[in-house]
Amino acid sequence: MAECVGVDSSTSAHTMDKSIILPPDEIFRNLENAKRFAIDIGGSLTKLAYYSTVQHKVAKVRSFDHTAKEAHSDKLYEISVQEEVTARLHFIKFENTYIETCLDFIKDHLVNTETKVIKATGGGAHKFKDLIEKKLGLKVDKEDEMTCLIKGCNFVLRNIPHEAFVYTKHADSEFRFQTTHPDIFPYLLVNIGSGVSIVKVESEDKFERIGGSSIANLPTPALMFSYFGQRFDELLQLASKGQHTSVDMLVKDIYGGSYGSLGLTGDLIASSFGKSATADKEFPKEDMAKSLLHMISNDIGQLACLYAKLHNLSRVYFGGFFIRGHPVTMHTITYSINYFTKGEVQALFLRHEGYLGAIGAFLKGAEEDNPNQYRWVENYAGSSGLMSVSPDMNPMQRARSGTFDMLEMDRLERQLVKLPLLQDPSSYIPDTVDLTEDALAREYWLFCFEDALDGVVQRAVASQPDLPEAPERAEKFRQKYRHKLQTLRHQPFAYGSLTVRSLLDTREHCLNEFNFPDPYSKIKQRENDLALKYYLKAVKALEKLEWEDRQLALVSGVLAGNVFDWGAKAVSDVLESDPEFGFEEAKRQLEERPWLVDCYDQWFERLKGPPHRCALFFVDNSGVDIILGVIPFVRELLSRGTEVVLASNSGPALNDVTNVLTLDSFSYSFLLSSRLDKVLATLVRERKTDLVIIEGMGRAIHTNYYAMLSCESLKMAVIKNSWLADRLGGKLFSVVFKYEVPNRLHMIHSTL
């Protein structure tokens, strides 16, 4: 969310306001490269969408072939920073009062565009048609509102993992985000605006309005101003303070208690506004507002339940002007759905439901480019996130002048699919701990990331010693990421479920925003050089061991390599204070057996059997970890006749050590569902992979610890965080070695 500076607070909220100053580095970014526009204008809010190209720096690795005669260097590789262009979608939401100022801003900053048409939808598209065409010089092409709404809904459900949520008012975490099923269809969309439309969506292009109601027309502006003297947002604020029981007639008011034979509890509303019809007195406006809200929500909820049951649909999404993230409306809708379905159907809400029309209109205008062939990911650095649900903040915060919300999404160039080896992709939850719900863990990890910020800034500057503007960019990164952390401390639900992985994603997005593709590049290069020099000595030492001793030594090597993690403070402190700390020292730091989770004996017995056909090994992309830990382990598997596929993060990698198939994921962890490169997934299937190995604290503990696979799996990690070790019942450098087989009779159960 960005706030614009106002210079005339007396301007009426119902006229166009040109008194705001828009910060170009926060709002309407990359307009100079904008290529396509769409707009959705409702009764009070405008949502603008456009496509742009973004140039940023990426770290590239170049390896040298020393078998070639023309080799002139002893270097095995070099890391360089290059420019790369990617596609980005921008969505901005603001009040209609600022539409003229925003259009002027766009016109002044739009350098060059081939676009001649702007797609438009929403009830206000006709009203502002002449203004848009005059200001931007673009022809307004109006699109069907419901079609745009459905296209936008499909898009966010398909591309944003934690888009949908259940709202629970009195829970520790009001938001409970849902894992999106790989197949998003069919579902019911209940759009509540000036009226209610109930739409059954069966596929990308097949949907049908199966019902509706005019009930939502009750809180019209005329009604609100004639009786309440307030706008809709203010009415909801008023309702949040009211007691509907002073106005509504309850079952117990009629029968003195519950009506057991009909299953009616005493607190159930028997007649909305019932007491106001029989009492000759003035009722508080907040109580009347609460009663009105309950009446509308209950009727809409009952309608939605009836249609969901009639069409055998379990997924019901609510959106529209009536919702917009307001806690009071979400709570009353949720209560109504729970009551009428006895918990069989959940009321689902969307983080970005306010953008659906604009997204759909944009997609209609971009059909020739087929944007749905790509995957898009939310860019946390440029997105506002979900706002607070606090009744004291949320409605007025949304209504206040000068508030802009943004959503940015970046295009992934590769096709991504789920791992074919997951037992049940629909139930796969990657993250071990949800910080949204675990307050103690949340506070600890937010402190850790903020405490580490100075070190990240220093390394970012050091990674670009030849660029004099690097310190200035690094300071901007510091300010933006610190602001994000502060937002997440107060609104942990802002970007969906808060996890260690999402905190790292946010940091990575902010670093990329200011052109720091890899702050640790210099450290990695130095560590790689040292590890490569030690590699042959390590391999020869292993070859001298007897087979039985070698198997344990190989596992210990992987674990020792995992100790080298500059992202872990306990390790970075050691590495910075003791430059001589090496691979053998790391082995001595490891916990002695039995380990915290110790399935080594079962793994050793399995090695006495036939070799695996193919092993998929998820690894780090650089350093001691892969060179001295993983590669010797892989050599042993190869010697057994097992084919090995290495998969690393798609960030900077030491590509000369082996043919690494990249995995489009995160700098610290990865997802097995909907995040795998299609080439890798195809290879896994073709090679009949029967062993998956996941190593590292981020990949095997913070994520994927509970992932259930249809083949054998190994999860290996060293716990390099004292707080986490203590919580798991271990100590610093405790070892997790978890071996699982899909047959439940032989499953090794280990719980942290």
Question: Could you describe the 3D structure shown?
Answer:
- The relative contact order is 0.10.
- The model is unreliable at 4-14, 218-222, 389-402, 652-670 and 744-752 (pLDDT under 50).
- The chain is globular, with a radius of gyration of 29 Å.
- The longest helix is centred in the middle third of the chain and has 26 residues, at 285-310.
- Helix 1 (99-109) runs parallel beside helix 2 and helix 13 (453-462) runs antiparallel to helix 14 (470-490).
- The strands form six sheets. Strands 1, 4, 5, 6, 7, 8, 18 and 19 form an eight-stranded mixed sheet that branches. The protein has a seven-stranded mixed sheet with strand order 10-9-17-16-11-12-13, covered by helices on one side. Strands 21-28-27-26-22-23-24 form a seven-stranded mixed sheet, sandwiched between helices.
- It is an alpha/beta fold.
Assess the beta-strand content as a share of residues: 15-25%
**Oligomer category:** single chain
Q: Please estimate the helix content.
A: 25-40%
Q: Summarize the main sheet.
A: 8 strands, mixed
Determine the structural class based on helices, strands and strand pairing: alpha/beta
Q: Report, as a whole number of angstroms, the end-to-end distance.
A: 38 Å
Query: What's the shape?
Result: globular
Computed CA radius of gyration, to the nearest angstrom: 29 Å
Number of strands: 28
Could you give the topology of this structure?
Elements: E1 2-3, E2 5-6, E3 20-21, E4 36-41, E5 45-63, E6 77-95, H1 99-109, E7 117-121, H2 129-136, E8 139-142, H3 145-159, E9 164-167, E10 175-177, E11 187-192, E12 196-201, E13 207-213, H4 221-228, H5 232-239, E14 249-250, H6 251-255, E15 269-271, H7 274-278, H8 285-310, E16 315-319, H9 327-341, E17 346-350, H10 356-365, E18 375-378, H11 394-399, E19 403-412, E20 416-417, H12 439-451, H13 453-462, H14 470-490, H15 500-513, H16 521-543, H17 547-563, H18 569-577, H19 583-589, E21 597-598, H20 600-607, E22 614-619, H21 624-639, E23 643-649, E24 661-663, E25 676-677, H22 678-686, E26 691-695, H23 697-702, E27 712-718, H24 722-727, E28 735-740
Parallel strand pairs: 4-7, 7-8, 11-16, 16-17, 21-28, 22-23, 22-26, 23-24, 26-27
Antiparallel strand pairs: 1-19, 2-3, 4-5, 5-6, 6-19, 9-10, 9-17, 11-12, 12-13, 14-15, 18-19, 20-25, 27-28
Helix pairs in contact: 1-2, 3-10, 5-8, 8-9, 12-14, 13-14, 14-15, 16-21, 17-19, 17-21
